[in-house]
Amino acid sequence: MTRPEEPEEPIEATGAEGDGRAGAEEPDSGPAAAAGADASAPPDSLPRRPVALFAAVGVVLLEALALLGCAVAFMLMSRTGGELGTSLIALCVMFAILGAGMLAVARSLWMMHRWSRPAAVAWQVLQALFGFSTFESGPLLGLATIVPGIVFAYAIFRPSFIEAFETGIAYHAAHPSAPAPPPKRW
Asked: Whose CA, among 39, 88, 158, 181, lies 20 to 30 Å from 172?
């Protein structure tokens, strides 16, 4: 098999104005090449936050506030709990740690950090499993833990959420130590 010969360098023709350019545009320039170059360049800022991100962060924030509220309730009950005071304090500490963790997940979801999606999904799965296990004792507690998980799953699998999150991850990969600037418009 023979390789096709490479053409020699083209002879430059001068345009009508005599600017040294050829009459036709080169294939490397133009809007198509500029769009291709922009597509591979890292983003300069976080993308606009879609409505689905607001829903997902809202669900996680509500769950974090519920955990922190339970921690406060356990602390208050431990004062009058008698023999159960120590157990209630342990529950208070556990719920406070979980609530603080969920606040961190909500903030990282808002900032579109890579680790926040798997952490939030894992929490929603655990919460839904808890809801299914308690469903027989009363449907309200089960529904209160399953419905937010369904809303969250619907929100994070929306195409606008996925596209914005991928752009956010690309931004953080390109600017690992720089603080994120505010999004273009939210």
From this structure: 158
